[in-house]
């Protein structure tokens, strides 16, 4: 399988503190991948390393086989939209489309114009006077016009209304299906992801907790509800990811490679959103409380 992006024990420190650590992940070609994790998990840091804006402090990241920080030629194949959609605010969308043609090898101005026209973005208004969501659409249109082989999007839908969000993700999937572009997008809006992404990377406190094809991940997890569990093995369960207990009952998120046959457990399937939330919940509670000097 061809991997577009490969990170191997990748690490980045800011002022001596690891923002990303031992990050090993491989992104297969042609996927729309979601990068999820709580605030401060290291998502932007990973994306900035992948587009060569940051230099790794440990390990390595390769995009199309090259290290982006050292090898800037690979950047022609990468489209990137940063979190704050930093387009030049004094320029109009039309001017930005024309400027893009001057600084990019491959440039599909017609594609950008068709997208912006369809979205009703005014061509001759400075983008600084557009709404946040309209600016995000301009930034995406410019990134797509570059005809990138890998598109990195840092929270692209955060400022979009629900309809625009759906349209954005649908058109993204359409454009990916047409061009074979691989996409890695960070998002906090989990409900959208199951429909639009087929690969998932879960980051938590700078490390990868889960990555793989969405269908495999969903098929490989179940929630079990049953009698109070004290760690004894359960037939059909590979690992317990998370456990919650009352005096008499336990609720477990488990990895399973087959059916759970023990009749004392009720087995529930999980949505992708439930699964991600279960992975993320409570994880750093102890460390965070210690950092603030208050009891957990
Ligand atoms: N320039 C910087 N200087 C110092 N620390 C930084 C810097 N940028 C990020 N950090 C820290 O690195 C960690 C990871 O930040 P990052 O922005 O990558 O997280 P994120 O997952 O993108 O968060 P969010 O969802 O809030 O955008 C955080 O603890 C953050 O405070």
From TrEMBL:
The lineage of its organism: Bacteria, Bacillati, Actinomycetota, Actinomycetes, Micromonosporales. SMART domains: AAA. This is ABC-2 type transport system ATP-binding protein. The keyword Transport applies. GO terms for molecular function: ATP binding; ATP hydrolysis activity. It comes from Plantactinospora soyae. PANTHER family: ABC TRANSPORTER ATP-BINDING PROTEIN ALBC-RELATED. InterPro entries: AAA+_ATPase, ABC_transporter-like_ATP-bd, ABC_Transporter_VariousFunc, P-loop_NTPase. CDD domains: ABC_DR_subfamily_A. Residues 5-230 form the ABC transporter domain. The keyword RNA-binding does not apply. PROSITE patterns: ABC_TRANSPORTER_2.
